[in-house]
Amino acid sequence: MSVDEAVDERAPSAPGPAARPDHRWLDRAAPVAYLLLSVFVLARLWADPNGRVLRHNIDDHGVFLFFVAHAERVVFHLDNPFFTHQLNAPDGVNMMANTSILALALPVAPVTHWLGAGVAVALLLTLGLFGTAWAWYHVLSRHLVRSRVAAAVGGLWCGFAPTMVSHANGHVNFVAQFVVPFIVWRVLRLREPGRALRNGLALAALIVLQIFINEEILLFTALALGVFVIGYALWDRAAARAVAKPFLAGLGVAAAASSAVLAYPLWLQFFGPGSYHGQPFPPDEYVTDLLSYGAFARQSVAGTEGVAKQLSVSATEDNSFFGVPVLIMLVVAMVLLWRSAAAKATALAGLVLALMGLGPSLQVAGRDTGIPLPFALISHVPIIDLVSVTRFTMVSATVAGLLLALAADRAGTLGRRRRVVFWVALAVALAPVAPKPLPAEPAAPPPAFLAEGLWRQYVPAGRSLVPVPLPEVTNGRDTMRWAGLTLLDVPVPRGYFMGPVAPPGDDTGSWAAPRRPTSDLLRRVLLTGQVPPVDDADRRAAAADLAFWNAGAVALVETPNRAALETTLTALLGRAPEPVGGVLLWRVP
């Protein structure tokens, strides 16, 4: 079965493509290899999952500890899966408006409960890379290519491309793409006549599952499939007309069924308490640099930190970085596949998403050229305005893997000499982008006051604990991480999450809770080390903030500029602290 036959309703749909008998061993060997490679990439984190952090993304590592801890509370304490008051007390956090990975975190809740949130996150990152590679291998080998070796190459790239390894720096939601290949295949199956209900319901189930893993990836996949369908219809109009009716009927069933299931969660996400609109940054801030396609990512064996840093927004967003050899192989792939309408439509989808990933204007070598691009026309469209623009390029990376697999399959029809040249060239192209282990480093453990539950003697039931520094992005990394590691046992104010910046007047998305006078004051002291003059107005504001947070105690942990913070808190609260379990504690009447 060729890729064109796979999207042609006249081709048999029940049996998969015939594989070479001598290569069926890859059905067992490929997943083992993918799993070993996943462990290799995360090896430094596995050295101590609860005591180490991924160096390139400490903040997001902490936020996913929070997400798995929340899921543990859902399973073991019957908390609301869609909302929590354990972080950002008393307002809470809208978990549907955050990438709470419920479909992943709930199944591993026992791991979180008994082995710790750090182990759960490391496990999900490892299984995400492995599962994505294996899922693409499975779909490719069963439905799209004849050669198991070609499928193994496709799975290897789709699971371990530079963008995937980059996002393995803490982005559990982006490395867990193992549902996507099945969504793609089920969309292709919609063409089957007389099976609109069955195929539509199967697709709806996968859509619902992916919603609770990552909505951004689902959006990218839907856009890419839309472009693919349009491109295929343009290149093979007769085939498109023949399957249009069952395809649209099945798509309607999928849309209706998934909408019925998701109606309340999506309402809560976009209109419920803690919902927001837009991002805390303009759409042209995080875009893909054109030159990054020919460079190597910092986590590729041929990559260097200096070059990648110039061409990428961060170490977690090396979304292109194919390298020149792979770009050349993609050109070779299209030469081999040029007679295939499905391959050309696939390439078109990758190019369109790559163009969107470049943002509103073209950026080259870190400089905005001012050349306008089509994305400027849609950058403020609802839903589109919620994504990080450079991540559209992740789809292009997956498309590259599919084209390489299809070309490798087609290479089997070439003469022996050309076939050898193709495989040697492919090996040479892929070798420089092989992944390196992600850097991880030891992190400060929670003080005994938190780790041993000593807080229970000082914080009455129903009250919150105010840790200083307050948990926030960058400035409160340790306290944010400790909240997850201690499984959200005690409510804490503020935190690192997505919510409205200043409700109800301004519901623009923000990475922090709405500002409070005391949190602003303590942040300044933390950053500068300077003790400000404290007057009665500051004390009244602190009393009002502690009342708003329903605080039972304030705990100052080990942190830079601790002495300045202690002096400031003593002046604000009017009394000296007591040392308890590694913290300085002020009880709040």
Radius of gyration: 26 Å
| Structural category | alpha+beta
Distance between the termini: 74 Å
Low-confidence stretches: 9-21
Strand order of the largest sheet: 7-10-12-11
Counted up, domains total 2
Strand content range: 5-15%
Helical segment count: 24
- State the total count of DSSP E strands: 12
Overall pLDDT: 94
Q: Tell me about the biggest sheet?
A: 4 strands, mixed
Shape: elongated
Helix content: 40-55%
In terms of topology, how is this protein built?
Blueprint (H helix, E strand, L loop, with lengths): L2 H4 L19 H16 L1 H4 L5 E3 L3 H20 L5 E2 L8 E2 L7 H4 L3 H7 L1 H28 L3 H13 L1 H6 L4 H4 L4 H10 L6 H16 L3 H21 L1 H35 L33 H7 L12 H14 L3 H17 L3 E4 L2 E6 L20 H19 L4 H15 L9 E3 L5 H4 L12 E5 L8 H9 L13 E4 L3 E5 L6 H12 L7 H13 L2 E6 L5 H12 L4 E3 L2 E5 L2
Parallel strand pairs: 7-10
Antiparallel strand pairs: 1-6, 2-3, 4-5, 8-9, 10-12, 11-12
Care to describe what's here?
- Residues 1-20 are annotated as: Disordered.
- By secondary structure, this protein is an alpha+beta fold.
- It has 2 domains: 3-7 and 25-50 and 116-433, no CATH class; 448-587, no CATH class.
- The chain contains 24 helices and 12 strands.
- The strands form 5 sheets. The chain has a 4-stranded mixed sheet, with helices on one face.
- A hairpin with an 8-residue loop joins strand 2 (83-84) and strand 3.
- Helix 4 crosses helix 6 (109-115), helix 7 (117-144) runs parallel beside helix 11 and helix 16 crosses helix 18.
- The longest helix has 35 residues, at 237-271.
- The radius of gyration is 26 Å and the shape is elongated.
- The model is unreliable at 9-21 (pLDDT under 50).
